[in-house]
Amino acid sequence: MRVARITLPRAAPDCYARRMGKAILRDGDVISGAALSALGVFIFLQAHQWNYSGPDGPGPGFFPSWYGLGMVALSLAMIGQKVRKGFADRAAIDWPAAGRGFLTWAAFTAAAALLKPLGFTLSFALLTFFIVLVIFRRPLATSLLTAVGLAAAFHLVFAVALDVALPVGFLGF
Hints:
single chain; mainly alpha; 2 domains; 2 strands; flat
């Protein structure tokens, strides 16, 4: 005796919802927004272990509390904006822009490594010069003037006006 199998038609899955669900997990803005939001929550929770205010005004927990809340709010706004706009299929990665981002990261790393031997003023001037010249593609004179001007301004504000001891290199500044 043969039993006939009857297959009933299934409802077609909602392809848009499935695509959007996968797209949201692969989107760089959503991933970085979630990571920044988690970092903001961590900062906020850690800041609540310190005094929020003291007898002289804001305590050591004041700034980190607001900084953490700000990070959470802005990262959630970034995620919400991405969800509201939708997840259109994008072209391949913009490698020139990614390369400039990686170069900026490398420049910050180099500036941090040069901070002790060269001092803050010179390492900051080199960082500014590189970013303006290479990343923003400005002329050499503009890059040099910007680097010298910003380094001098930072030195005047922090070392002279606020009397903050900035790291000093072998050249004495």
